[in-house]
Amino acid sequence: MNEAHADHPAATGHADVDRHVRAALLVFLCLLVLTAFTVTAWRLHLPTRAAITLALLVATVKGSLVAAWFMHLVSERKLIYGVLVLTAVLFVPLLLFPVLTSSSALHR
């Protein structure tokens, strides 16, 4: 492509679409590899604790890929990230609340 065509909006739009398609295919390939890894790990019959840890780790990576790319969170503004971090920070105490309120230390 010569310089006369490089300034044309359709030429830059086509390159942008190609870049997004390549990135989406890369994410899809990563998801396929992680799925194959999950199936392979299942066939290893790991101890329960290790299997759960590995499954949660792979699920977190796969979920992050899906959220970041297919939900377009990669290109969102800081406000969205702030809301997500706040949600995560408030979610952890919410999960710990039953454990902390039902412990034997509180009933002494």
Structure notes:
The protein is mostly helical and 108 residues long. It has 2 domains: 1-74; 76-108. 80% of the residues lie in helices and 0% in strands. The mean pLDDT is 82. The protein is built from 4 helices and no strands.
Number of domains: 2
Tell me the series of helices and strands, N- to C-terminal.
HHHH
**Count of individual beta strands:** 0
- Average pLDDT metric: 82
Can you tell me the residue ranges where pLDDT is under 50 for at least 5 consecutive residues?
A: none
Instruction: Indicate the percent of residues in helices.
Output: over 70%
Strand content of the residues, in percent? under 5%
Q: Tell me, what's the shape? A: flat
Total helical segments: 4
**Structural class per helix/strand content?**
mainly alpha
Main pleated sheet: none
Q: Measure the end-to-end span.
A: 79 Å
Rg, rounded, reads: 22 Å
Provide a brief overview of the structure.
The protein is mainly alpha-helical and 108 residues long.
Question: What structural keywords apply?
Answer:
single chain; 108 residues; mainly alpha; 2 domains; 80% helix
How is this fold's topology laid out?
Blueprint: H1 3-6, H2 9-43, H3 48-70, H4 78-101
Helix pairs in contact: 2-3
